[in-house]
Amino acid sequence: MPNLHRGEIAAEIGGRARTLVLTLGALAELEAAFGADDLMALAERFGAGRLSARDLTRIIGAGLRGAGEPVDDDEVAMMRIGGGAAGFVRIAAQLIAATFAEPQAPR
Questions:
Q1: Which of 107, 94, 106 is CA-nearest to residue 4?
Q2: pLDDT, position 104
Q3: pLDDT of residue 19
Q4: Can you list the pairs that 53-61 forms with residues at least 24 positions away whose Cβ atoms lie under 8 Å?
Q5: How far is residue 66 from each of residues 6, 9, 22, 27, 36, measured CA to CA in Å?
Q6: For residue 43, which of 105, 88, 97, 6 has the smallest C-alpha distance?
Q7: CB-based burial of residue 16 (10 Å sphere; 0-12 exposed, 13-18 middle, 19+ buried)?
Q8: What is the pLDDT of residue 105?
Q9: Which of 10, 19, 52 is nearest to 34 (CA)?
């Protein structure tokens, strides 16, 4: 079961329930892949809302690897997700939000 306080999300990918998380190592991987100088630059890129299919593959792949799944981006590109391309966008958006969103104060 994913722990949202650690930035984990759950998603069905390739017909299986999976956990994704952007660990520090996964974020470093994405910084290198996107040529971002730091986490702020990476967050700004994601916040711009313009992500290619390759970007989505990289983000979801990094999230799966962060959770311990030994997959490469080419394998992720071949996986099926409910909702097609919109499903990939939804999962990437949830993962980014879980990683970069401000924690909510207890009420």
A1: 94
A2: 59
A3: 96
A4: 53/77, 53/85, 53/88, 55/92, 56/88, 56/89, 56/92, 57/88, 58/30, 58/33, 58/34, 59/22, 59/30, 59/92, 59/95, 59/96, 60/13, 60/20, 60/88, 60/91, 60/92, 60/95
A5: 12, 11, 6, 9, 19
A6: 97
A7: exposed
A8: 52
A9: 52
Which amino acid makes up residue 84?
Answer: G
Size of the chain in residues: 107
- The one-digit pLDDT tens for each residue of the chain (107 residues) are 778 778 899 999 999 999 999 999 999 999 999 999 999 999 888 888 788 999 999 999 999 999 999 999 999 999 999 999 999 999 999 999 999 876 555 55
Residues 6+ apart with CB under 8 A from 106: none
CA-closest candidate to residue 59, choices 85, 8, 24, 95: 95
Q: Which residue has the tokens 């390759």?
A: 54
